[in-house]
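Researcher: Let's try something more involved. This one mixes different molecule types, so please make sure each is placed in the same coordinate frame as the others.
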Amino acid sequence: MAQILRGNFEPRKRPNVELPSTDDLTSRFEAEALRRLGGSIAFVSKKKFTLGLEAHRPDSEAPKASNGAKRAGSPS
Amino acid sequence: VLVRQADTSPPSLGRTIAASLGSITLQKVTEVGFANARANAERIASGQSIAALRDTPLADGGDALVVAAGPSLHRIDTARVIRESGFRGTIIATDSSMSWCLRNGITPDLVVTLDPHPTRIVRWFGDPGLDEAALREDDPFARLDDAYYARQDMDPGFRDEQLAKNAELVQLIDENGSRMRIAISSSAAPAVAERVAASGMEAFWWNPMYDDYDAPNSLTHRIRDMNGLPCVNAGGNVGSACWVFAHAVLGKSRVGLVGVDFGYYSDTPYERTQYFDEIVSLVGSHRLDDVFVRVHNPHVGKEFYTDPAYLWFRDSFLEMVETAECETYNCTGGGILFGPGIHWSGLAEFLSGSPAS
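Model: All components are placed in one shared frame. Result:
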């Protein structure tokens, strides 16, 4: 049976078939997919969902972004 | 019903690709995310951070409903159920579902946007600069009726007559912008930031986490140092980001999901899926079944299928839900998001405050 599956003739030229590895496929898929969508943002496998929000209060806000200056319902 | 064991197909090429996506996505998105953050610096510096959202009525109450743009939104009478429910919680919509909400008489309390693509995301807001030439530039090898948005199964409204639909959308967002708040990522394209400002939406800025914030020289810390904004783990996609905003930013204890499919209905042709061209160019049209992963959803007794990108989003979501301090109710009515930590519930039951548990 194994002999049959292997084929019953010797090809004149050995075919040069190279299958891409899964790593290659993954990289190519991702590159193509990101080109289409622009790329969603990374998922970070960490327990905290936010950084810098816990202690984020008006008096501790970094200088470059305002915080809490507007209240709900304020026109923009 | 809390499902303990996700029912998925055995490992396949599609699943193998999905498992590897996360580790290599970072480097590809960082460059454009940082470039957009620099371009948006002036708006950010004169704007508000998402911390201010906690001082708005959006943070009141314990319930939130996330509306994403998956195909179930259009197959089930979702809009009527939401409208008739009298739901008093916070409605958080993805940028891609915002127009569906407005067209159906639902005004989102908060819209979330994060994808950095330079031209495509602004289309969800109505792009005043869109013309036939821009459509062809967007996808030069496609027919006008077969370009990116034309291929969306997510919102059939975007499929046909794109220019006319875009003009209607510009008007719709302009009319409703001042009634909505938006959590806009520093990574968003400047065109989106400009459109948000022009439409009168009230913007609240944030940074997406880019990497392990505990690592030395972390990019996440670098961007926080750059603009001072809080960072949020966006979960890889805008639908997941909405859910994170609901519990981790607004402090909601019960979060319902609609339109969070992360997959396609089995009668959806492969060519209507998001990454069809990429998958064909990757493995050829004869191996599509190896890449698309079939998933049986026991809650609805139907089979759905998904691609590696959506499968990765789903796996990431399931990982995040393990540590979230909220109860998550998937009211989508279809799709592949089920597993440990996810309650499957009817939408009407969730909105009435009596979901399945």
